[in-house]
């Protein structure tokens, strides 16, 4: 059985998963900072992490290190992915990790699928701001097959908070909320809520769980989705197809996915509404609203626009689920920050 809960697919990314060998004693050498490395003396409420922007794949990556009890290990870049729940690591981590009670599985990232081995890492270390090391023991992580890594283009630090089958990366670290500052390449993970239910600029997270198993994706109900496309009879004419929630048969739901370069549309848009998608779609604009009714428009970036449309095997019933638009980094490239707080069912985007 293949479970598909992930959208992560970073097209053209050749940098994620970059590996550096080290012994744990040498970890401080890997930092570009001149500040000597140190461990947190106690569990902090929130931890800031620097991110590295990878321009080819248009994604943001976190520096992660794993090691065994003999202090042998390596450091790699993991794409910050709000569309998956697990930390995945390069194949060489099989030599440094132990078996778990979780059997291997087949997972699907976007369209590609492949085998995943579930392993226990004795040490997982994240390099925080000020060259401080955030270290956690005995982390369950996934080691994807080479085919999955090749097709999806990267290794992921999944930030979906919950999974019904295995402990999520965030749960194992003890964090419940996150803030991604895209402009300043910065991630904050927090043990306490980062938003208030009464924040007028926040938005309500949409619950997908009634429609399928293990659907803890961060999603939001859309008011309008606009697709810009080239007229099939006149290459100089750009038109807009507007999909209004009041004029379609199902809700339109956007999934917030920083592990995806472009955009994915569920094939339900075509099946249910009975019209084909335009052949040459140039971009999209998604309109949502905050809890006080303010409209928020999220627009794709021309440079990093990629579009796929296929059946999503997530749902109990193909005839009864929302239309899905997965918003990858082509949208986040045009925003300042994203805060997600699943503990209170809210998120906030600054455009």
Automatic annotation (TrEMBL):
Signal sequence extent: 1-17
Query: Which of UniProt's keywords are assigned here?
Result: Signal
In Swiss-Prot or TrEMBL terms, this protein is called Peptidase A1 domain-containing protein
Q: Which organism is it from?
A: Fistulifera solaris
